[in-house]
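Students often ask why we bother predicting the structure of a whole assembly rather than each chain alone. The short answer is interfaces. A chain on its own may look different once its partners are present, and contacts between molecules only exist in the joint model. In this exercise we take two input lines together and write out one structure for the complete complex. Read the inputs first and try to guess which parts will touch.
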Amino acid sequence: MKIISYKLPPRNQKMKFNRIYALVLRFYYLFRHSWDRIGDAFYWPTIDLMIWGLTSTFFKSFAPNAPQIILIVLSGHMFWLIVWRAQYEITVNLLEELWNRNMINIFVSPIKFSEWVTSFIIVGLSKAAMSFPFAMLVVYLAYKIEILFFSWYFVPIILLMFMTGWWVGFFVSGLILRFGTKVQTLAWTFAWLIGPFAAIYYPVSTLPGWAQTIALFVPASYVFEGAREIIYNGYTDPTKFYISFSINLVYLILSIAFLYSSFKKVLEKGLVKVY
Amino acid sequence: MDILTVKNLTKKFGKFTAVNNISFSLREGEILGLLGPNGAGKTTTIQMLLGVLTPTQGEVKYFNKSLQDNREEILEKVNFSSTYTQLPWLLTVEENLTYTSYLYKIKDRKQRVKKLIEAFRLKKLIKEQMKELSSGEVTRVNLAKAFINYPKVLLLDEPTASLDPETSDYIRKFLIKERNQFNFSIIWTSHNMAEVEEVCDRVVFINHGKIIADDTPEKLAKTIEVCHVVLNVPDGLKRTVEIC
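Now the answer. The structure tokens for the assembled complex follow.
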């Protein structure tokens, strides 16, 4: 593959905190000024949870023998919120730089590619740290459901959801760098392309045969299967999480390599011309 | 002492050659004009000098070190401003300068931002979002951003293009004064010979991606034998036809 042949910078791979902080600060300032971003963090999660919560409450009235239906749907939705948030912060923050024609101002500074990528991850983590507890509160107040019911399983589930969000975000960002804002819609839609195969609200066995095969390669599907087992039985086989972690790790490495190769490709056209 | 050397720099976009095997150098404390008509290859050259465009061929060295191998170290001491780029438009002037200051190793951040706000007459605008500013004001913020890291080399791509004559004059004088005081070097692209003559110590004239001349503005002006003068007169064509 061509990406292997790219020459890496020769020395001093150490990242500098001040430069990562600079970009995090830039997005914090943006968040303060943008109603769109504030809405993304609080308004949409609330609306989604209300709609899904009410829908599952309605379904529960038809299936009184399935008392866990609300927990399954709402926990699924909340964990998917992390995937969404993590990928969205990467792709939309990149788009923000393209819309503002600010890429050149960033990269005429000594910032490194790794620092740039790290700043996106930190911004995603920070926003999730705001949105997720808020969503937990909404779910608790509206439906008396505690997501912390998952106990220590909560930690690997969250980590694996973030990993999925990151590789989706890096892959879509690579596409946006290569093809410009004409493919910007992928920032909002791509995660949902894998959504059906991730089996967020239903078991993988519900999917048709061919889709079950695809689900094997979607790391989030193992997590959602595991989460449902925890809801039903109080435990799950950790092997599901190990498999999910391994696939996520492979995809994460490949997606960063793809993003890096896209960035190098863009440098051949010039950063001014990326739009 | 040469602070920047460019050797056999070439950039091809497919079959089109934007910059064709150019070589020049920039001395310490020198203001070098990169003069040429639109599409001559000035901006392409500047982008390659900043490392945001990969050359097809050739080498760029700052402080005797290759830009490709020492990007981080070199870009700490270099900065850039262009009329053709923007800063995040939802951020205020102060926020833009503050976050940019963190991209560089600057000890006295607050003092530096404050000084630049005063130097570029931005005091009344510090709480304004970039989207609220006029193009001239945006240019001044861009220039302030370019000075944030006490650059040893400043690359200015048509820095006065959108400024009114009074502000252009102020900026030119400010840059010359700063250069005289801190002895940094500037590459100044322009297609305005009068401006280049006023500001630059030396001029590299580029056309169709090639260097045509490299000399002092005075000598260059003497060697140019043919001048094209275009008079922009309202209704000029109509009146010419009437007179004829």
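Check your guess against this: Residues 16-273 of chain A form one domain.
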